[in-house]
Amino acid sequence: MIQRIQTLYLFVVVVLFATMVATPLLDFKINNVKLDVENGAAQAKPDVKVTKDVKVYQMTYKGIVDKESGDMLISTSLVTLYEIVVAVIALITIFLYKNRGSQIKLTIFNMVLQVGFYVVVAVYMYTAYKYANTDFDFHLPIVFPLISLILSYLAFRAIVKDDLLVKSLGRVR
User: Fold this and answer.
1) Rounded mean pLDDT of 109-120?
2) CB burial readout 115-148, b (16+ within 10 A) else e
3) Which of 12, 26, 72, 155 could form a disulfide with 63 if both were Cys (CB 3.0 to 4.6 A apart)?
4) How far apart are alpha carbons 148 and 146 in whole angstroms?
5) Averaged pLDDT of the chain
């Protein structure tokens, strides 16, 4: 089990997704532009003061929270659920080393979930962009699912290679 390379790949996937649960994924910067109009008695044109108020929210395991006060704006429990499920499935896949068929199926399912993770994050980002003037700052953990997807694919290939090797040895006898 430990001597196989796919165990290492899957363990790194577990570590990456466990790290994602503990760290913020991205920042939402919502720009509130305020126009203050002052009408002077001696002036023909009103004075317009433009002030820019920037609120920063972070996407964490709790949800999208205000960075300063910690108040939650939106729950992101679906993102947290994805992070936990992918890590648990990868961990379970490691211990199914005697059943390579199940390992292959779980690895493919895990890869689909990793792509789905980006879809869910994109929906949150699109919604924030649609309803507010939002800029995004990405943190390093947002690339972890991409790295995990590559590692899961490498693990999938190694599992298939092991399966073909075992089947070929069975034919020799």
Assistant:
1) 94
2) eebeeebeebbeebeeeeebeeeeeebbebbeeb
3) 72
4) 5
5) 84
Question: Does residue 52 come out as left (phi exceeding 0), alpha (psi in the -120 to 50 range) or beta?
Answer: beta
Cβ pair 148, 17 in contact under 8 A: yes
Would strands 26-38 and 72-74 be described as parallel, antiparallel, or unpaired? unpaired
Which one-letter amino acid corresponds to residue 94? I
Chain Cα centroid distance, residue 35: 37
Q: Which residues pair with 134 in a beta bridge?
A: 30
Helix (H) or strand (E) holding 104: helix 100-131
pTM: 0.80
Tell me which H or E stretch contains 137: strand 134-138
C-alpha–C-alpha distance, residues 89 and 69, integer Å:
35
For tokens 């790290």, what's the residue? 19
Packing angle between helix 100-131 and helix 144-172, nearest 10 degrees? 160
Q: What single DSSP character describes residue 2? A: T
Whole-number percent of the chain with pLDDT over 90: 43
Q: How confident is the model at residue 38 (pLDDT cuts 50, 70, 90)?
A: low
